[in-house]
Write a structure and sequence with these properties.
272 residues, alpha/beta, 8-stranded mixed sheet, two-stranded antiparallel ribbon, 28% helix, globular
């Protein structure tokens, strides 16, 4: 039976943890799991068709992450509110934390927000997500469990008119102890195109969750990006979930020098 828990703070309905007591070495996050808009935000001035698009969430990513959680006895932390309200995979000072424009679409409900309104969104979404991950890792450390943190995302086949040929991308920084064997294993499978730091890289500010919770502690980590036409239905989600679970099951970290932990990404609360 699926085990879930929710934090007991004002943003408790903004984050969900599946299998919090999982004893496997992996912990998964799904930073853009939902396109849900709580009632207090209305539609942010957008039609329903926009709320179904990638600008609102990462379609297909959550079912893949759920398969990984189940197969690998891994905790899974997911957001429960659309990234249009606030993008939890951004530092508090990022210009696209609460995006006024996403891709080429203006978000009317995000324009001219007061400092109080912005802080309310941080309290509603950002804090619960990151406090949950932090508490989970600390609890695992106390239990003597190794933690390898992996975030699961999806991306669009075409972005601003440019085709993206990769079926899956692995995003990493200079710590490649986990990403290098993962990329190598995917390439050995064959039949699809693997991107290394494609279609994004940490320079695009997409690596924040891993920087904050894994790299700051010296933990193994990597970010998975799957092209969303590959996981638009249950068949594709199961294919990629099972493929990745099989790879992770036998994956051995690369024998590379352990880089020093990064300093925790600086955030400035109340001044965004």
């Amino acid at each position: 039976m699926e085990r879930t828990s929710r934090n007991r703070h004002p943003g408790a309905d903004s984050v969900r943890v599946t299998n919090p007591d999982g004893a496997g070495v992996f912990v998964f996050t799904c930073d853009h799991a939902s396109n849900f808009l709580p009632a207090e935000f209305g539609t942010l001035g957008l039609p329903a068709s926009d709320l179904a698009r990638h600008i609102a969430w990462d379609p297909g990513a959550l079912p893949v992450a759920q398969i990984l959680s189940e197969r690998l006895d891994a905790p899974l932390v997911e957001t429960r509110v659309s990234r249009l309200v606030l993008d939890c995979n951004r530092p508090l000072g990022a210009p696209d934390l609460i995006p006024p424009v996403s891709e080429t679409t203006t978000i009317p409900g995000n324009e001219n927000l007061s400092a109080e309104a912005r802080q309310a969104r941080v309290d509603r979404c950002w804090k619960p997500f990151h406090e949950t991950i932090e508490g989970l890792i600390e609890a695992r450390t106390a239990r003597g469990l190794e933690t390898r943190l992996v975030s699961v995302h999806s991306f669009t086949p075409i972005y601003k008119g440019i085709d993206r040929p990769w079926h899956i991308g692995i995003i990493h920084d200079d710590d490649t102890r986990l990403s290098a064997p993962l990329i190598a294993a995917l390439k050995r499978e064959g039949g699809f195109t693997v991107g290394a730091n494609q279609p994004y890289s940490p320079a695009d500010r997409v690596y924040f969750t891993l920087e904050r919770h894994a790299r700051s502690r010296g933990l193994l980590c990597a970010m998975i990006e799957i092209r969303n036409d590959e996981i638009r239905d249950q068949s594709g989600q199961e294919k990629w979930g099972e493929r990745l679970a099989g790879i992770f099951t036998g994956l051995e970290p690369a024998r590379l020098p352990k880089p020093p932990p990064m300093k925790t990404v600086r955030t400035i609360e109340g001044t965004i």
